[in-house]
């Protein structure tokens, strides 16, 4: 069992340069096979939310399968996901226009998967603007 745990952790260890390369190479996000592969077995914001809001009657195996991504699924039919996909471009454009009014030389660029070398099993998804980092979420309510 110890060997399995060590092998699991070793699989996720990454140098800062590897983390930067991953972010650069996955900027196409869900259109990128590399993006999809590197999301596997990592605790994403969605998984963390599902764990935090877990109901007592939820089968533990269902949670484990979700974290391990053994049952990959297309989430685009879920209302909140569909809403986000539909309005992401508009939200980014409005955010960019607002920030350009408030900050000189503001730039907005796409980003890929952001892995923190100290916490390689979790993911940070962010949009980068200059030297500040901000996450933009589109809320349906």
From TrEMBL:
Any GO BP: DNA repair
Record protein name field: YqaJ viral recombinase domain-containing protein
PANTHER family, sorted: ATP-DEPENDENT DNA HELICASE, PHD-TYPE DOMAIN-CONTAINING PROTEIN
Ranges where the YqaJ viral recombinase domain occurs: 35-101
Highest taxon, organism lineage: Eukaryota
InterPro entries membership: PDDEXK-like_dom_sf, Restrct_endonuc-II-like, YqaJ_viral_recombinase
Gene3D superfamilies xref list: 3.90.320.10
